[in-house]
Amino acid sequence: MNDEPAHTSSYDVIIMGGGVAGLTTGIQLCRDGTRVALFEKNPGVGGCCVSFRRHGFVFDAGVHALGGVGNPGSFVGRFIHSIGFDLGRDFVRYEPAERFFVRGEKYEVAQDFSCFVEGLKQKFPKEERAVEEFFRLILKIFRRRADWTRPVFEEYLPFTYQDMLERSFTDRTLKDVLAGFTGYLGYRASEVSFIAVCLMLGSNFYESSYYPKNGMGAFAVTLAERFRAYGGSLFTGEEVCEVCYDSPYYQVTTSKKKAYRSKQLVAAISLDRFCSIFPPAAQCFQNARESLSMFVLYLGVEADKGMLAEKSGWYFGESDSYYRIHIPTLIAPALAPSGKHVVEILAPIPAGQNEFASWVGNNDKKRQYRDYLLNKVSKIIPELPNSIIVEESASPATFHRYTGNKNGAVYGLAMCPEQMVKGRPKIMTEFPHLFYVGHWSTPGTGIASVIYSGLIASEAIKMSG
Ligand SMILES: Cc1cc2nc3c(=O)[nH]c(=O)nc-3n(C[C@H](O)[C@H](O)[C@H](O)COP(=O)(O)OP(=O)(O)OC[C@H]3O[C@@H](n4cnc5c(N)ncnc54)[C@H](O)[C@@H]3O)c2cc1C
Prior knowledge:
By secondary structure, this protein is of the alpha/beta class. It contains 16 helices and 18 strands. The radius of gyration is 22 Å and the shape is globular.
């Protein structure tokens, strides 16, 4: 059999990876006339931002909130508006924006984040001044995010979120409530960078997060439609297996044994996979630590609203473990047949090769974890186990299989202090005309950040063009 690539097609830019980062970069380039080829290994686009359908239920496999969407002046707000999304028509708002249950007590984060801050001041009057200063600092850092050289970043870069909670407050309960926000980044407060929490709080709460009415996957599919409509060439089901640089061209070879070349290349895929298909990159990114993974239980249930009302949110107990209940059909009923609901339960799973390996092909472990999680949630919603009509689950092995992210990491490169700003791969890499976007790159994880990386990369590519 001849293993040589069949022929070589040329583009201005090749993008590897059809998650939100790759799609954003592609859209921004194509709309200005750049000839772009985007390769996605799966039959469909979206990466972590996909939905799947079972017996009339639509489940979000990964993402459940789009940060930054609520502010038309934010870069996310401007981007989605510029490609034809309409906030009122296409998205719904979480109301309240978030809910935490800390040792059984409920805390609601109002859509107007200042109301939440005021509520904390009233509930913890001795900490009133500290609360005020803490959130002022968060907002200051968030607003300066476009320029990492600002002194404020240098000053707070070494700190974890827990460091800052300890420095700012004395009340244990207040610290525990505020630590709840780190669920969004998949870490305990003692591990996650304070700067990362500032970025997340800014886009999710100051700029507000929304939910696409037709589910998260529909959002990514619309991005792909726009990419194509602007003239982009989308190759799904075609994995990039090898990259070579022979100045001035990058040549990529795909799983279909085809070769393509371009002067500019964008990687929007997992760091370890990128290093394996382009070995020179491996020297630059040694010892990179991935984020943790998740176990997700996807349930289609027969239930009335009353049974599920006010149950979605993050649940923190005495032990180190926590989980989230996500019920999108309370705000987007079209995702389930009439009278039925989608309930998803997400629990973080530690990062690392050993933990990951223990899930691969291990259906017993999956079943046991499913029972453990369902047992926990049945203390909150006792009727849930008997209401299940449809059920699926995803383990770290599942996330690895679908996204290619190392060890099933759901948030890309870990957002710990050492891997923020200078410690992360840059969008403009040290290789000529090679750009790196997405949650393994700068600024970090989550939809708002990966859209930002795509916008920055596309501008840089146009300038260097
Ligand atoms: C369970 C879960 C819950 C989450 N919740 C939220 C949330 O509520 N809000 C939020 O903002 N973020 C959330 N996130 C994080 C967010 O989804 C990610 O940070 C973001 O979607 C990453 O986008 P990306 O484009 O960088 O990478 P990915 O989404 O990982 O996309 C990479 C793509 O590249 C493809 N690929 C890999 N290798 C190759 C190759 N060699 N050739 C071609 N294609 C390749 C993959 O198939 C994939 O489609 C969540 C993630 C998960 C998994």
